[in-house]
Write a structure and sequence with these properties.
single chain; 153 residues; alpha+beta; three-stranded antiparallel sheet; 7 strands; 18% helix; disordered N terminus
């Protein structure tokens, strides 16, 4: 439902798997911002994500790798049209999110078939993470994080 915004090219890029390059969002159309109380729109999730920006991403050293987690963003993905992540000095890439579960009581739930809310990289390679969110009202928000500030122990 909330991913209708994606243009055909964006949908194809997401389907191409991890690593799709960030796309021009000019082909997107803003969704109506009907307040539902279920946190399904930008109007509902933007205040939460703004207040919890420090939790958007984290880094964990595990099994000889850096794992970059976006679990918090997945949990609040309803109301997002697109999530882009850039590591160090690389260009932004679109990171695919699962669809929202709009029929149940927990639309942002992360279920076993959704894949993993992280990506693995060479140990010690992640120094800085930039995140750009495109909400379903087409507004955007960006943040940059230093490894030392977001490393899980």
């Amino acid at each position: 439902m909330h991913f209708i915004l994606r243009s055909a090219a964006l949908v194809l890029a997401l389907g191409a798997g991890a690593g799709a390059l960030a796309q021009d969002t000019s082909g997107m159309v803003a969704e109506p911002q009907t307040i539902t109380g279920k946190f399904l729109t930008a109007t509902e999730v933007k205040p939460v994500l703004s207040a919890t920006q420090g939790n958007w991403v984290s880094v964990r050293e595990f099994n000889g790798q850096d794992l970059v987690y976006v679990t918090h963003l997945w949990a609040w993905r309803c109301g997002l049209a697109q999530m882009e992540v850039a590591l160090n000095d690389a260009a932004y890439e679109i990171w695919q999110m699962p669809d929202c579960y709009t029929e149940g009581g927990s639309p942002g739930a992360i279920k076993s078939g959704d894949g993993e809310p992280y990506r693995a990289f060479e140990l010690g390679s992640v120094e800085r993470i930039k995140v750009r969110l495109v909400y379903d009202d087409l507004s955007t928000d960006e943040a940059e994080f230093q490894r030392a500030d977001i490393t899980m122990q």
